[in-house]
Specification:
The complex is a heterodimer.
Chain A lengths: L6 H30 L8 H13 L18 H12 L11 H10 L2 H12 L5 E4 L15 E5 L2 E11 L7 E7 L10 E7 L5 E8 L5 E13 L3 E2 L6 H33 L4 E2 L2 E2 L4 H29 L5 H26 L1 H4 L5 H11 L6 H14 L2
Parallel strand pairs in A: 1-4
Antiparallel strand pairs in A: 2-3, 3-7, 4-5, 5-8, 6-7, 9-10
Helix pairs in contact in A: 1-3, 3-6, 3-7, 4-6, 6-7, 6-8, 6-10, 7-8, 8-10, 8-11
Chain B lengths: L1 E5 L2 E3 L21 E3 L1 H15 L5 E8 L4 H10 L3 E6 L6 H15 L3 E5 L10 H9 L3 E11 L2 E8 L2 E8 L2 E5 L11 H7 L4 E4 L32 H10 L6
Parallel strand pairs in B: 1-4, 1-6, 4-5, 5-11, 6-10, 7-10
Antiparallel strand pairs in B: 2-3, 7-8, 8-9
Helix pairs in contact in B: 2-5, 3-4
Chain lengths: 387, 250
């Protein structure tokens, strides 16, 4: 048994930490000011351009993308270290391209789609979104109502999709739709590549979310796609979607580990400095318990993340592990950030410190990609069915 | 021109070290290790010389147990062409290091040897100077700028009174000061490439050196803790405290 990350991946982690400290942290006060002014927690196009050029120069693009489209094809365990480092900052920047759609595309594209969608995506030239949830079907994909019907050599799409991030800036989306109502999630759901600007596709509304984020609702009315827009096999969109969700959940969990680690580091910085009633906060048992519990929770979540990523790398099923990890990492980050805010007192309530924005992000992640309760249900059901 | 650069594995500069309870040394358990910052500057300078077309090959050498190969590979990722490890138990004292480096110089015959002025663990600031004495090569210590001109090397040194520029005949030894350059980060592709670069391992016997210790560590203890300072309200109060509490003026 070996619990140590390979030397080159430790060096990669160090490199990403340098990137976060030198290039993301300095932008944080601006991002927090923008959010406080009601403009959303965003970075400007110029700031993104600078970050993109630095991260590209450091070779941090396409880390988990296949080599034949210019990626580094790093294993999932390396990405755990990378995403933990990236998660520490509240600056909304991920190393291009966004991994989850990448894993789904890489697993399904045809040669033509590889050229047209995957390669420019890996090269950071395009932005993608994913459209799964519907107003009446969130966690339960079997309730999906958006349909795709073959009409001659075109697919005709009708339905509504909701909670789509980046729908306003995307070049294309991966869209999930029902192609066989009878079969449902067992052979009846297909994936499609939907270009922005396709006639019949409309952004119905922008939905402001907590923490200065936003998602979108999309309307699809007789939206006609060529047969070549089908991603993967007809009726078999569910499995690659699950793979995409696993990648996303792993990514989110590791961001949460980074967020919790930052909150713990901030407590360790502040608690010895702040004196109340004759002693430092760090000398009080309650604070000490919080520190010890934070460290234990972060450590356990990190071990779970590495183990889950390692199993994924081996091609093994991680259904139970990913659910345990997603529930544990998001919930422990929530508690850790909350305690850090409590430890900082009124300072922790300000929009001058990143803590409240970290809390906002974790709050969203306790819901996104499956609420905690659903993941616990998955674990329990899995345990009970194995008896 | 062949350039030899010495690199040392030390505790990362961000780590606050603690003395071991039994006073035998610093507690290195669970402590992050890194390349000595002055050695990183030395590597960076050598790589810049290569990029400028002045140097043809950069060799990174480290002395220590197998774990120091990690720092050699860091140097390779930063742009060194190949590495040499001289295998010893633990971290030998400066004179032994200088003798071993002299052995490597005899094998490789570099035109320029760049070392950090000191390592941030022992802070000895001795190896470069001892190496100069042992090899009879000219030395330019505490360099803040170096320039190769033909078979001469101009070195700007940071000294107490300001800056001093000296000309050395090559081959020569340079030790780096903090302001010589700002080292780059190794990019990911270079980190991956470093794995495939040549790394030779020598024993002290291969270099004809018998490592013998002249120094013993008697005790390692933390410096005495200082009392927190206070801010006085007025000059009168300051004078009063200096007179009556600190008793440094009368």
């Amino acid at each position: 048994m070996n619990f140590e990350l390979d030397e080159e991946f430790r060096k990669l982690e160090e490199l990403v930490n340098h990137f976060v400290e030198d290039h993301l942290y300095p932008l944080e006060s601006r991002v927090l000011e923008r959010e406080a002014r009601g403009e959303g927690a965003h970075i400007t196009a110029a700031e993104r351009e600078t970050l993109d050029s630095v991260s590209r120069e450091l070779g941090l693009w396409g880390l988990d993308a296949p080599e034949d489209v210019g990626g580094m094809a790093l294993p999932g365990v390396a990405l755990v270290a990378v995403n933990e480092a990236i998660g520490k900052s509240v600056v909304p920047y991920v190393l291009p391209p966004d991994s989850p759609n990448l894993s789904m595309l890489a697993a399904t594209v045809t040669e033509a789609q590889r050229e047209r969608y995957l390669a420019p995506y890996v090269a950071g030239k395009t932005i993608s979104a994913i459209a799964i949830s519907e107003p009446g079907a969130g966690t339960d994909p079997a309730a999906m109502a958006t349909t795709a019907v073959l009409d001659g050599d075109e697919w005709v799409i009708n339905g509504r999709k909701i909670w789509i991030t980046r729908a306003d800036v995307m070049d294309f989306a991966i869209l999930m739709a029902v192609t066989d109502k009878e079969k449902g999630s067992r052979g009846g759901i297909s994936a499609f590549l939907l270009d922005a600007g396709t006639p019949g596709l409309r952004i119905a509304r922008k939905i402001p979310m907590i923490g200065g984020n936003a998602t979108f609702e999309l309307e699809l009315e007789d939206c006609r796609l060529p047969v070549t827009a089908l991603l993967g096999e007809q009726g078999k969109g569910f499995a690659p979607m699950q793979l995409r969700l696993s990648t996303r959940r792993l990514e989110m969990s590791t961001w949460c580990i980074g967020i919790a680690q930052r909150a713990l580091d901030m407590m360790l910085e502040y608690a010895p400095q702040r004196h109340t009633f004759g002693s430092a906060l760090s000398e009080k048992q309650t604070i000490q318990n919080w520190l010890a519990e934070a460290e234990s929770n972060i450590h356990s979540a990190r071990l779970m993340a590495y183990h889950t990523a390692w199993k994924l790398d081996q091609g093994q099923s991680v259904r139970r592990e990913i659910s345990m990890l997603k529930a544990h990492a998001t919930e422990m980050a929530w508690t850790t950030v909350d305690r850090a805010m409590q430890c900082y007192g009124a300072m922790g309530m300000t929009k001058e410190l990143p803590l409240q924005q970290m809390a906002n992000e974790v709050r969203l992640m306790r819901i996104y990609d499956g609420p905690t309760e659903i993941h616990k249900w998955v674990v329990a059901r899995d345990l009970l069915s194995n008896r | 021109m062949k350039v030899l650069v010495a690199v040392k594995r030390v505790v990362d500069y961000n780590v606050k070290v603690r003395a071991k309870a039994d006073g035998t040394g610093a507690d290195l358990n669970n402590v992050k290790m890194a390349i000595n910052p002055f050695c990183e500057i030395a590597i960076e300078e050598a790589v810049r010389l290569k990029e400028a077309g002045v140097a043809t090959e950069v060799i990174a050498v480290s002395i220590g147990d197998k774990s120091c190969q990690e720092q050699i590979r860091t140097a390779l990722a930063l742009g060194a062409d190949r590495g040499i490890q001289v295998e010893t138990d633990g971290s030998p004292e400066p004179l032994v290091v200088a003798k071993l480096l002299k052995g490597v110089i005899a094998k490789e015959e570099p035109q320029l040897v760049i070392l950090g002025k000191q390592s941030i663990d022992g802070d000895n600031n001795q190896t470069g100077q001892m190496l100069g004495a042992l090899t009879n090569m000219p030395q330019g210590t505490f360099a803040s700028e170096i320039k190769v001109e033909g078979d001469k090397l101009n070195v700007t040194r940071e000294i107490d009174g300001g800056l001093q520029t000296i000309a050395l005949n090559l081959p020569a030894i340079v030790t780096t000061d903090l302001r010589l350059n700002e080292p780059r980060y190794a990019s990911l592709p270079n980190i991956m490439k470093a794995k495939k670069k040549q790394l030779d391992v020598y024993t002290p016997a291969d270099l004809g050196v018998e490592p013998s210790a002249h120094l013993t560590t008697v005790k390692v203890e933390p410096p005495a803790e200082r009392q927190a300072g206070i801010i006085v309200e007025s000059v009168e109060q300051l004078v009063d405290k200096l007179k009556n509490e600190a008793k440094v003026i009368s």
